[in-house]
Write a sequence for this structure.
């Protein structure tokens, strides 16, 4: 069934009904598509809900936190983010002060109340159309291409301030947690962030395979903060560019210019961010320190080999010459590039880099001399901890690796967050496809949808 798209109905919306907007009640904010004040109220209220959840959930985690377990073993999903910013954390990633987490949660609750009041005001009491009562600056004419790119510019500048906030925190206001700090990680000021464009853009243009890992291969806080400096500058420049200029001719012709198209563009961008975040969470132990999020899959595997190497070496094994059942080195072997790596099944993770393992490397990979003489107790403890907390658990059964019986039913925080980001990214890209298709249908002059005349909701009584 095809329902004709009558653009005049949408452009002259006078209320919230199907007749005046072209959208049924279940279409949500689409009913407000031409009411800038009401649409603002919906978005501010949504921001309040998100902020309230963050504050309430963080306080819930604070109330359940215990100092005698690693943070990643307590099912906490918000406290690790706060700790990674250097709040309440000490040497080795140990939580030493719970008050900053409490303070952060309360601040979110207070801010959520402000958002909530703003959302209620603009949804119920404020002007329906901001441009009629306040200023044409706030108009939402979806076909005004110049106004739409102006809004894009304001959003980019807002994101730039977010990147700048992280830079200021890391470089001037207390520092940030660095898992690579000597002795097993610590909070430190990033005094010399990387500004070399060759290094920063080298990540962007590197291979995603092997030991490179594209941008998720970053392995120093200097590079991460330096990358945020570049991102902030580009966002500020891009924002001012879009505000100061009008869309070029090819842009006007190439893009669809209506509200649903803008929604689809935003969903596509969020989806890209979600998929990239998934890779960061799963692979990167610098941006997502294992002290807070648990070990990565490669890290847990390497930790297992290291743990048994240390144990057997203390029992008298010659780790340099012992041979495994397949004829390869039992404890140490050569990688395809010739460097010395751990033997056994973990050979497939030979390009893993982690702060507890790197001190034992030499110019040709793992150093036999360092493994025999320089292993520190903290490295052994950390490897044993990571070995038994691999991100391979199942929600309702024992995980799939031999060490998992040591921690039955443990669900690694890293795997939960990575899965969460992946599924949200996937649903978001599906939303992009849906709304992009509808936007093109609108531009072509028709929509595919249910029959408005026989829609079941029209014959249903009011909810109250």
């Amino acid at each position: 069934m095809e329902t004709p798209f009558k653009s005049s109905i949408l452009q002259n919306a006078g209320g919230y009904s199907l007749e005046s907007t072209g959208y049924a009640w279940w279409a949500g904010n689409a009913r407000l598509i031409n009411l800038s004040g009401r649409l603002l109220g919906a978005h501010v209220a949504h921001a309040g809900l998100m902020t309230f959840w963050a504050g309430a959930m963080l306080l819930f985690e604070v109330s359940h936190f215990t100092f005698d377990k690693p943070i990643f073993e307590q099912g906490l999903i918000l406290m690790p983010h706060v700790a990674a910013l250097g709040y309440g954390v000490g040497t080795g990633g140990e939580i030493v002060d719970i008050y900053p987490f409490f303070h952060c949660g309360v601040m979110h609750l207070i801010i959520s109340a402000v958002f909530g009041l703003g959302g209620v005001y603009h949804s119920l009491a404020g002007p329906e159309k901001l441009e009629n009562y306040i200023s044409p600056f706030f108009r939402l004419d979806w076909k005004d291409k110049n106004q739409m790119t102006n809004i894009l510019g304001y959003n980019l500048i807002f994101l730039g301030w977010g990147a700048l906030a992280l830079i200021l925190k890391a470089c001037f206001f207390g520092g940030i947690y660095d898992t690579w700090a000597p002795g097993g990680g610590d909070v430190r000021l990033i005094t010399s962030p990387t500004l070399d464009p060759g290094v920063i853009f080298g990540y962007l243009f590197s291979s995603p395979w092997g030991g490179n890992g594209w941008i998720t291969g970053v392995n120093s806080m200097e590079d991460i903060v330096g990358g945020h400096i570049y991102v902030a500058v580009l966002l500020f420049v891009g924002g001012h560019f879009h505000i100061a200029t009008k869309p070029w001719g090819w842009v006007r012709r190439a893009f669809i210019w209506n509200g649903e198209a803008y929604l689809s563009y935003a969903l596509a961008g969020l989806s890209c961010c979600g998929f990239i975040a998934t890779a960061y969470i799963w692979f990167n132990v610098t941006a997502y320190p294992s002290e807070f999020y648990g070990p990565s899959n490669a890290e847990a595997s390497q930790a297992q080999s290291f743990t048994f190497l240390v144990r057997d070496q203390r029992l008298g094994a010659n780790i340099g010459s012992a041979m495994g059942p397949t004829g390869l080195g039992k404890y140490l072997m050569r990688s395809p590039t010739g460097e010395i790596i751990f033997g056994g099944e973990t050979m497939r993770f030979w390009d893993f880099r982690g702060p507890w393992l790197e001190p034992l490397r030499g110019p040709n990979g793992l150093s036999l001399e360092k493994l025999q003489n320089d292993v520190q107790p903290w490295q052994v403890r950390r490897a044993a901890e990571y070995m038994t907390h691999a991100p391979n658990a199942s929600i309702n059964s024992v995980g799939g690796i031999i060490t998992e019986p040591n921690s039955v039913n443990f669900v690694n925080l890293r795997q939960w967050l990575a899965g969460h980001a992946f599924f949200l990214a996937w649903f978001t890209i599906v939303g992009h496809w849906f709304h992009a298709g509808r936007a093109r249908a609108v531009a072509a002059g028709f929509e595919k949808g249910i029959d408005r005349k026989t829609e079941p909701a029209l014959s249903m009584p009011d909810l109250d």
In short: The radius of gyration is 27 Å.
